[in-house]
Amino acid sequence: xxxxxxxxxxxxxxxxxxxxxxxxxxxxxxxxxxxxxxxxxxxxxxxxxxxxxxxxxxxxxxxxxxxxxxxxxxxxxxxxxxxxxxxx
Length: 88
Fold this sequence. Notes:
Elements: H1 5-12, E1 35-46, H2 58-64, E2 68-73
Antiparallel strand pairs: 1-2
């Protein structure tokens, strides 16, 4: 049954949805709702004292004379437990 092509096709359509962030050792391909320092750009925020000045968008400052910082998606690990009931 585990190698049944129909079962494998249905398995590919599963979507992982998490309610909370968990630490773990396996990487999941999902977007974090938390913002911070990472690789993928997420949004802009008004600069506040203590923010990392390296994230200031100087092009926007040149146009609007307003300091804004770039926010990035935080990469997080998610532990996934997959349970399969094979009983008839």
